[in-house]
Amino acid sequence: MIVGFLEGADLLGRGFGTWRRHPGLMLLGLVPAALVFSLIVVALVTFGFGLPRLAHWATPFADDWTPLWRGILRWGLVVVSFAAAVVVAMMTFTALTLAVGDPFYERIWRAVELDLGGEVPERGAGFWRGVADAGELLALGIAAALAVWLVGFIPLVGGVLAPVAGAFLSGRILARELAGRAFEARGMRLRERRATLRLAPARVLGFGVATQLCFLVPFGAILAMPAAVAGATLLARGLLDQATASPPSPSATGSPPTVSTVQPEASASTSEDERFSSRG
Length: 280
What we know:
The protein is mostly helical. It is 81% helix and 0% strand. The protein has twelve helices and no strands.
């Protein structure tokens, strides 16, 4: 589990190594990330400054409480709500950046695929497929943010569990979305992609959490986005190679095992000897 998690995090580091081989492509990948990042930061800061008033409006019943407990409730609500907003912001950033920068990131994906060798699809998933994936990612991000928001209200431990839950939930979603380009280019259906990701869940989670932590660093999302696309390609190719090397068992495919109906030659010879003995 831990080894697989660290292997996934290392894939992001190898994605940064793509800067040495394809600096021009990686530099282009910064452009859409910078544009979307600016919009997300403005929206997140505006929401953050408005949160205290929102918490005061949402808790009128606490007006008669002592200042200590009233402050604990309202500032706890502010912290939990902002943590949930960060989850939504990261999902929104990834979704919009991949959609807006699809031509740039497809070139990065193809360059990494060619570096790895083997069979490479002639074209990626396409712009509209990226738009559909962006909508799905936003929906998953909202669901994850709601889960983080609810976890934050668990007494005593909610303030600690909420960021941890957010890291694991959003990390898994990010990894799945970033690796989807390599799967979709090969015409894999959703069920097939999920089955492939389940081959190494710790590796997938490690890559996603490492990517998310980079996104939390100031301006880290801009610098990490091209590397995340490259690292996700490495992740997907590794999983595809693993799936090819480990074909499903008969029970997994639903087909009954093949049973031989040919009798061994030795058994046939024994039967002939017995018939000759009985005649004698």
